[in-house]
Each structure stands twice: as C-alpha cells, then as structure tokens.
Amino acid sequence: MNAKLWLDQLREAPRKKALPILSFPSVSLMGITVRELIESAELQAKGMKAIAEQVDAAAAVSMMDLSVEAEAFGAPIRISDDEVPTVTGAIIHSQAEAENLTVPPVGVGRTGRYIEAVRQACGLITDRPVFAGVIGPFSLAGRLMDVTEILVNCYEDPDFVHAAMQKAVPFLIDYINAYRSTGVMGVLMAEPLTGMLSPDLAEEFSEPYVRQIAQAVQDDDFLVVYHNCGDNAARMTDSILRTGCAAYHFGNAVSMRDVLSKVPAGTVVMGNVDPAGQFRNGTPESVRQETLRIMEECCPENPGFIISSGCDIPPASSWENIRAFFQAVEEYYNAHGIR
C-alpha cells in the first residue's frame, strides 16, 4: 500500500487502531532473553509476528534499540538478559576526533542483523504495515560523544557538536535506505536527547539534521515518524514540525493535550501512556484508566491523534497490562458509539 495513503486512511478513520511502540515484550511470548533476541534476526522477526498475532495494532514496529547505530561506529555497549542494550562509553572527545571519525558501512555490527530481521518480518506480517526503529542524529551524536558532554558542548564547543552530527547524518540516511529495501513502510526515528535541549538549541542542533534525513528518504511510499520523549518536547513543537516528518510521536513527560494545541489540525500525532509507570509497573486497571483519560482528553477535537505508548514498552512489561491497553482503546470507541 502507498504509505501516504495508509497514513491518510489512519488519520481519517473514525475508529483508529492504537500504535504502541511494542517489540521487546516478545521475549516473554517466546520464552527467551533480551540477549537472545538481539543476537538473532530470526527471533526478532518471529517476535514481531508473535506480537502481531496477540494485538490488533495499526502497524508492527521493530525494536527501538538506541545502541545499535553507535555500536556500528565502535562505541562499547552493555548487553544483559533482561534490559535493552545501552552504550557505556564515548569514542570521540574533540572536534578533530569527530572530523576524523570513519562513517561505517551499513551492515557493520548488528545493523545487518537488524535489517535482516525486518526483512523477514515483512514476509511474516502481511495484514499491517511494518516500521523499523532507528535513532535520530542528535541522539546518535550524544552516544558517540557522551550524553552529558554533548549537552555541555552545545554551549561550549558547538563546532564539535556539528562535526559529530555531520557524521551521524550520512550513516543514518544509508541505514534507513537499507531498511527501505526490505519492504517496510517507514521508520520510527527516536530523537529523545533533543528533548533535553532548549527550543533554540534544538532548532540549531537537531532540526536541520532531522530535516535533511527526512528529505533524503521520505516520499509517498516511505514515511518518517519522529519520536521525542524529552521533558522539553512540547516547548519545541514548531521546530519539530519544521523537520517535515510524516507523523510525530511524543512521550509521557509532556501533556498530549498541550502538544495537540500547538500542531495544525489533522497532523498525525501519537502518544503517550507511560511505558515504565504503566505498562511495566502499573496494573491492568491503572493502564485502563490512563489510556481512557488520554483518549478522552485528546480524541474528540483532534482527528489526527492516535493513542500509543509514550516510548518503547520495556521487555519485562506484563502482557496483562498490554492487553488492558488495547481493551481500553476498544472500550473508549464503544462507549462513544464510534464504529
């Protein structure tokens, strides 16, 4: 299906399917560890298929693993049996090191495995679109430089930050195009570190680079969905919209009603049930109540709003809670007589 047409139909449907970022909880469905999941393209594809069989989501989404791209550049990572992998150390410490950093070919490290996983998933999942997960350019640069250091260097050494960004962008364009070749409908680009910046800094250090990527890869057949779960995301809405992405996804650190008040009518905006507080640590009833609260606040006057998780749902989240989320979505539409 034409990707733009699919998005238009999703926006215009009176009864919209939920689209949570749901992938890692496949480990409990398959009885495996996170370590086993990330080491096997076949298990990742089977996990996405298992989730698609469990829930009627608008699309299937691959893992939001924000370590894989930095690892391809050479960053050290920590892998465990029950947590999402994380980057543990910086590999660039100056502008000169950033300028001399080699942009790796796609396929290095786990990137080839993740691309193959999505390729297999597209063959297994035929009743809904498949989206791949990738990191955003500022968030990638922050993992190459160190998260704290890049926030400081936006003030103290901006040329260093820009040098790192100029290495992140061409890699991400190549990586996204490799995903595109698998048959996915688009990517969910996670740029959470930008949400810790001021709006002015986000405008300088993230917006133009995200826009460059979107312009390079996005068209009617392939979508970029922008994700930002930072505390300041609502304050930089204008900058986020100028990236030109097809749709936008916000985390639970912000009010969805506040975000929606700042975007043009009909813009596809997703969010934002707390992944840790609700899906991981809540109860079926608390998930139900929070899902209904957000939908009551956001659905009636915002035709582009789609209920989702606020970010990637953690691996150890209860399937009772996940099912409660989808049941609450159905409950909302049934209560309002929306067919």
Shape: globular
Estimated radius of gyration: 19 Å
Name the average pLDDT: 97
Number of helices: 17
Distance between the termini: 23 Å
- Taking strands numbered 1, 2, ... along the chain, how are they ordered across the largest sheet? 1-4-5-6-7-8-9
Specify the biggest β-sheet: 7 strands, parallel
Helix content: 40-55%
Secondary-structure element order, as H and E? HHHHEHEEHHEHHHEHHEHEHEHHEH
Got a strand count? 9
The low-confidence parts are none
Tell me the strand percentage band. 5-15%
Question: SS-based structural class?
Answer: alpha/beta
Care to describe what's here?
50% of the residues lie in helices and 11% in strands. It contains 17 helices and 9 strands. The longest helix is centred in the middle third of the chain and has 23 residues, at 158-180. The mean pLDDT is 97. Helix 14 links the parallel strand 7 (247-250) and strand 8 (269-273). It has a 7-stranded parallel beta sheet. Strands 2-3 form a two-stranded antiparallel sheet. With 339 residues, it is of the alpha/beta class.
